[in-house]
């Protein structure tokens, strides 16, 4: 496998994000904190939500009853669709100076009567986590939904005694195929004067995704759906190659965006921004990660080997088609072959 | 019926008027076909009409008149003029129009070739024939009747390179089997002339294994050359035919090439003296087949074969030892042979002239370069295209009623999954 590739991919993603191509460009937060989110948190929240949602679904109606009703009108045995449940939990991590890094998260119970999170449980969990990760502090909380709501401010205020400025991580569980970015937003609370009354409101902050190699591999493994029976070697290879193909496609499209941007800048359509240019040039300088002769040799040799294998496969394929063709031709057109005797099974 | 001036005028006017769009051209074509006999009878008087027509716009009409003119026997003096005018026409005519009447075009070109040969100046015919061929083809994969004529002219004129350019294209469609046989045979000869023995082997192999219901002389001659080229290029010859050879060829070809098969036997012994003796003995036979030059090349390739065999045994060898083993006369000759082989890329070695030692090396190709990547990539593309074509052909053949009839008939009476609804006999 080509080792330098994933890190280059990450670097380009970061640079592309740095260019403000991510959704959270319009940052209205003025706290000046930089947020770094680990993918583990996102997977945790999504997993929590999916579990709760699937547990809350009613049991499916029997197939007999379903077919009997012909599906013309809605089946009376199934309840009307419910609004998706909201899940809650805590996010933990480290704050160093102006950088807030969110490493992990855990789930919490929400008490709808008091509109608050279960405090005792939270503290017990916090103690347990402190034993394993002494550096991690509670940085805030998370929930699911499409937008921040008024009732969330209550929970937010409750957490303020643990952390004077907690974060609110919101995951939007609705699947939008057109959307290209992560449906995760991080909110901070700020005191703004609205109509003469100082109020705490949620303001959006930008964030970046940060990961280490071990985390990336495990998240990758969990996040991608594998065929249920493990599949044969062929399907696994196909799935693996499909993944690489889509990754390369995305890489390609992002580089194309950068390229287009640079061209526009060159033509003069967009005012020249030197800071961005510096970032792009530093990105480009990072790219030939290994430049040695030996790498070139090994790389080309391996590439050639793969090409030769596919060539050989095509050859075999062609030869077998040719063989069948020749047999058929001989059967059809060669008058004198196989006179007498019995032919083999076709 | 006499062709008076009025009908001539109308003819010219019609040709000029109806040479615009494709529908007009088709209309003109039907008109001209109706006037066939007219053309034949009045061929001598039609020549002046040609001046009024423009070959690039009125190609179809021009073609018909030209064909009528050339059908009459032509004297040697007129031949030169005719060659010029036909050549001009071929260069200028429009391809779509002549494809409407391909047989007329082909007969004009064949007569052109005859005239050129009559004038004993085949060189003049090469370029026009090439243009004619390219205009007649629908695609580069189609073999036309003009291909073998073109190759014949190239052979006679000894301009092999032009012939080679046509041979580069792969052929997938053939109209007439005779064209195919001749094309491959002449093509093989051209490749031999250019010393491209692998391509020559491929072409001659096609002739030998092509489907034929009756043995033909082209295949016999091709088989003889095939044996010789195989000896020169591969150093060996296997007398078993691949399974796609027609049974006619399999049974009969060997009977006509006895001396050649014996040549193979004496080649395989590896002794130059025996080989030369054999060649001497059968000199007239080889000469009458006009294969003597090739046979001489076979003899000289024997030295190469022996030297190559040495690379498998020795790492270093002195030039004298080489000369002795290979039965060359002196170390100098051995050095020349080895040098030639190194240049041709048949062997990897270095000669140390100080002490007269030759060191044999491995193939230095490491398959590490970008050019190799491009080479393999292009080969993969070619084979993918070939694979697609093969699958198409396979599907077509599976639906062929002839095949289905035979396949159905050959099934055993009571089958493995017996008593099913598939009939065991197809009535077509």
Account of the 3D structure:
- The complex is a heterodimer of chains A (346) and B (428).
- The N terminus and C terminus of chain A are likely disordered.
- In chain A, 48% of the residues lie in helices and 18% in strands.
- By secondary structure, chain A is of the alpha/beta class.
- The longest helix of chain A is centred in the C-terminal third of the chain and has 41 residues.
- In chain A, helix 1 packs across helix 7 and helix 1 runs antiparallel to helix 8.
- With 428 residues, chain B is mainly alpha-helical.
- Helices cover 67% and strands 4% of the residues of chain B.
- Chain B has a three-stranded antiparallel beta sheet. Chain B has a two-stranded parallel sheet with strand order 1-2.
- Chain B is elongated and about 90 Å long.
- The two termini of chain B are 49 Å apart.
- Chains A and B meet through helix 9 of A and helix 21 and helix 22 of B.
